[in-house]
Amino acid sequence: MDSRFYPGVEADPTKLMSELRQIFSEDYQVQTMQVSSTSVLQARKSSTLREITGLSSALTIKVTPETGGTRVEIGMQKWFDKAAVAAVAMVVFAPLLALAAYGAYGQYKITEQAWDVIEDHITRKAGGYVPPLPGRCGTCGAASSAGSTFCSTCGANFRTGLTCGECGATQKDSSARFCSKCGKPLASA
Fold first, then answer.
1. Are 82 and 54 in contact (CB under 8 A)?
2. Gap between the Cα atoms of 137 and 157, Å rounded
3. Cα 55 off chain centre by
4. Which of 104, 102, 116 is nearest to 23 (CA)?
5. Distance between CA atoms of residues 59 and 133, nearest Å
6. Domain limits for position 17
7. Per-residue pLDDT tens for 134-148?
8. pLDDT, tens digit, for every residue of 93-108?
9. The dihedral of CA 65, 61, 161, 147: what is its sign?
10. 161 in a structural domain
């Protein structure tokens, strides 16, 4: 499971689960539940043909409030059945290889859409961009250098928290080019 911790952000699990439900089409079976303090969403896209060809996809998303922040975990299920179908396909039936690749790609895309919804929710709750861990990019997870304005791997904007050189106000908007207090241009450190 891919896990990210967002320090200092108290997500609204009920609202976040509602937002996450929107990315799944009517082709998915979606259920949400509460397990202790963890909110869980499970989404499954399955049919007999999908089961036979290895295209069934399932995703579990867990949102857990923790001391000092929020932890979000996403796990793709049935990833290995795609690899098994691909291995058999190479030996037995070449078209299955394309079907397994298509299924794996579909799981990757839905997971990326889920992280986008989660990152947007966290950003709104925090009043600006919050990397999931200090020293890590919240978009791609790559290590970031202290004082970086943008991620060197994916280009994500780290401007939140910049201090205005004129009045000393700390900026909350990651896309700010001008100070929200005095209006002076922000230095692009």
1. yes
2. 9
3. 22
4. 116
5. 23
6. 2-77+107-126
7. 566 666 566 676 667
8. 555 555 555 555 666 7
9. positive
10. no
Q: Is the dihedral of CA 61, 64, 68, 69 positive or negative?
A: positive
CATH number for the domain spanning 72: value is 3.30.160
In a domain, 25, yes or no: yes
CB atoms within 10 A of CB 177: 10
Nearest Cα to Cα of residue 101 among 59, 43, 54: 54
- Number of folded domains that form the chain: 1
Contact 57, 109 (CB under 8 A): no
Residue in 6, 66, 16 with CA at minimum distance from that of residue 36:
66
Query: What's the order of all strands across the beta sheet hosting 69-77?
Result: 2-7, 69-77, 57-66, 38-45, 29-35
* Domain assignment present for 184: no
Helix (H, G, I), strand (E, B) or coil at 31: strand
pTM of full prediction above 0.70: no
What one-character-per-residue DSSP string does 127-181 give?
TS---SSTTB-TTT--B--TT-SB-TTT--B--TTPBPTTT-PBP--TT-SB-TT
